[in-house]
Amino acid sequence: MQKRFLIVLSLFLVGGCFSNSGERLVGETVFNPNTLPPGTVQVSDSLFMIPLEGVDDDGCRGYRAYSPDGLVVQALHYRTSTGGFTMNKLDAACYENKT
């Protein structure tokens, strides 16, 4: 009887870790990529670039890196003309025609 209870309890606990809504367990919190701000760019499974509000004097929008799984560089990032990201504003797509 106790063995059956432990098996059922184990299945219940393991089953609670799965979800089909795109959510996943990160530490003790549930991460859902659908809750990120509009304009967020997913770079990889666990790296997102979140746009900052507005643009600077050169018309460049900044992005900040975010990962639910680990540490990221805390610096401004800009979009490149190829769709990637750079921390060097001189390489940013918005700045290419300024030189």
Question: What are the SSEs and their pairings?
Answer:
Elements (H helix, E strand, L loop, with lengths): L1 H14 L8 E3 L2 E3 L9 E4 L2 E5 L11 E4 L11 E2 L5 E2 L13
Antiparallel strand pairs: 1-2, 3-4, 4-5, 6-7
Outline, from the CA principal axes? elongated
- Spatial separation of the terminal alpha carbons: 77 Å
Please give the share of residues in helix.
10-25%
Strand order of the largest sheet: 3-4-5
Largest sheet: 3 strands, antiparallel
Total beta-strand segments: 7
Structural class: alpha+beta
Stretches where pLDDT falls below 50 for ≥5 residues?
A: none
Q: SSE order, as H and E? A: HEEEEEEE
Average pLDDT, all residues = 79
Gyration radius from CA atoms, angstroms: 20 Å
Q: How much of the polypeptide forms β-strand, as a percent range?
A: 15-25%
Q: How many separate helices?
A: 1
